[in-house]
Write a structure and sequence with these properties.
Distance between the termini: 29 Å
Order of helices and strands: HEEH
Strand content: 5-15%
Helix content: 55-70%
Shape: elongated
């Protein structure tokens, strides 16, 4: 588990968790960007609204955040 609160967090497990989540976000994003999949919402008694662009933006932000976390979690070279 990724426990950054403990005195000695297991950064390797955190890195693996972030890599796993990043892979899933990229897999979810691809069919949305290609147009293969659309996401929508419908309120009761209302029309369907395409929220695909919002979902794409959401996933892109998540990917950017996870990529930043991954850079932070990379082992540093001794020097």
């Amino acid at each position: 588990m990724c426990d950054l609160v403990s005195a000695k967090p297991d950064l390797e497990n955190c890195r693996k968790l972030v890599e796993h989540d990043l892979e899933h976000c990229r897999e979810d994003l691809a069919p949305l960007q290609s147009g293969e999949v659309r996401v929508g919402e419908c309120v009761p008694s209302g029309p369907w609204h395409d929220i695909t662009p919002a979902m794409i933006s959401f996933l892109e932000r998540n990917i950017a955040t996870l990529e930043t976390l991954l850079r932070v979690l990379q082992p540093r070279e001794a020097g």
